[in-house]
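We both want to read discrete structure tokens more fluently, so let's practise on a single case. Would you write everything just below, so we can both look at the same thing?
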Amino acid sequence: MAKRNTLHVMVDGQLMVALTPKEYAGLMTMRRQVGGLGARLRVVRDTLRDTTEFLSTLVAALEADDRAGCHHSAGSAAPPIAVLLASAPELLHRARRVAGNPRSRSPRRRRH
């Protein structure tokens, strides 16, 4: 595809770039794609935050149980491990759904 020279136009004292209808349509398509990717990234970010919060809570509970001799103390701020383990499958399902299919471990072919 040959690169065309941009056409600059002065409108109300401001320099602007003129686009063909085809270029404008392509620009709008890209804008929608970027918007969709931004929304997906926000979902991934929120899922990652939830997962890291869960893992931090799980680590704190495991440490508290280890210090208490595997008995949950009533004064501990960490929830019992059973509660955490009960919420783990839903969080893992959500994380897997957001992350998509895992990549295969086989070496990828390079395109030439």
